[in-house]
Design brief:
The chain has one domain. The two termini are 24 Å apart. It is built from 14 helices and no strands. By secondary structure, the chain is mainly alpha-helical.
Length: 264
C-alpha cells in the first residue's frame, strides 16, 4: 500500500504545490490589504448597506473585523471555488489520468487488488486537500501576525476542519465520477458542473426568501468556515454531512472500480 501511496502523492505533487502556493499567497495579500479597508470602513459600510441582501448572500457581514473580512472576501466565496476546483482536478484524475496517459494496463498489472490501487490514489488526494488547506491556514496565521490582529488558535483549527471537510466532499464525488467514466475531461466537467450547480442553488436560496429551501440541497450550506473561526467550534451537523459525502463517494468509487469489467 505504501509504495502505491507514495507514487500517487508524487503524481499530484505539482497540482498540490501550485494550488497551495497560489491560494496561500492570495490569502496573505488580501490580509495585508485589510488595514487599508479599515481606513475606508465608513464608505465601504455604506456600500454594503446599499447592497445588503446581496452581501449577506455571500456571507459578507462586519468587515471591520479580520474574521468578517476573511469570511466575506476569501473564505465564503473565493476559497471554496478554488479548493473545489483543486478537488475536481485531483479527484477526477484518479482513474481517468491513467487511461489518458496510456499507463492503465501497467497500473492494473501491479501485484495489488483494484481496491488497493484506487484506495492509494483516493488517500493521496485527501492528503493533498489537507496540504492546500494547511497552506491557507499558515497564510491566515502569518497575515494576522503582520497586521497585528488576533485570531483564536482554536478558531483557526475549527475553520481548517470545516475547509478540509468541504474539500474532501468535493474530492469524493469527483473520484466516484472518475471511477465510472473513462474520459478525464468528461469526468472533470461533470464534477465541476455539479459543484457550480450546488453553488448557484446556495446563492439563490440565500438571496430569495421564497427559495430559501434550496439551501438544503447544497453542500455549500454545510460549509461555514467563518462561523467556525469566530466561535471556535465546528457545527457537527454540517461537518457530518460533508464527511459522509466524502466517505460514501470514496467507498462507491472503490466498489465501482472493482466491479468494472473493462477499463480502457
Amino acid at each position: 500500500m505504501m509504495p502505491m501511496l507514495r507514487k500517487a502523492l508524487w503524481d499530484v505533487r505539482w497540482t498540490t504545490l501550485w494550488f497551495g502556493l497560489g491560494m496561500g499567497l492570495y490569502t496573505l495579500a488580501m490580509i495585508l490589504y485589510f488595514p487599508s479597508i479599515q481606513h475606508s470602513i465608513a464608505s465601504i459600510k455604506a456600500m454594503l448597506e446599499a447592497n445588503r441582501q446581496l452581501m449577506q448572500a455571500f456571507g459578507v457581514t462586519d468587515i471591520s473585523t479580520l474574521s468578517g473580512y476573511l469570511g466575506g472576501y476569501i473564505l465564503n466565496v473565493i476559497w471554496p471555488l478554488v479548493i473545489g476546483g483543486f478537488a475536481v482536478v485531483a479527484g477526477s484524475a484518479v482513474v481517468a489520468k491513467e487511461i489518458a496517459s496510456g499507463t492503465v494496463e501497467e497500473w492494473l498489472a501491479l501485484p495489488a487488488s483494484r481496491t488497493r490501487l484506487l484506495g492509494a490514489k483516493v488517500v493521496a488526494v485527501a492528503i493533498a486537500c489537507v496540504v492546500v488547506v494547511a497552506a491557507t491556514l499558515v497564510a491566515i496565521w502569518l497575515g494576522a501576525l503582520i497586521v497585528h490582529e488576533s485570531l483564536s488558535t482554536r478558531g483557526l483549527f475549527a475553520m481548517a476542519a470545516v475547509m478540509v471537510g468541504f474539500a474532501l466532499a468535493i474530492a469524493g464525488v469527483s473520484a466516484l465520477i472518475s471511477a465510472v467514466i473513462n474520459d478525464r475531461g468528461q469526468a472533470a466537467g461533470i464534477a465541476a458542473g455539479l459543484m457550480v450547480a450546488s453553488y448557484l442553488v446556495w446563492v439563490i436560496g440565500s438571496m430569495a426568501t421564497d427559495w430559501h429551501w434550496l439551501q438544503n440541497l447544497s453542500i455549500f450550506t454545510a460549509y461555514e468556515p467563518q462561523r467556525a473561526l469566530e466561535t471556535s467550534t465546528v457545527q457537527l451537523g454540517g461537518m457530518a454531512i460533508m464527511i459522509a459525502i466524502a466517505v460514501v463517494g470514496g467507498i462507491l468509487a472503490l466498489v465501482a472500480f472493482a466491479r468494472r469489467d473493462a477499463i480502457a
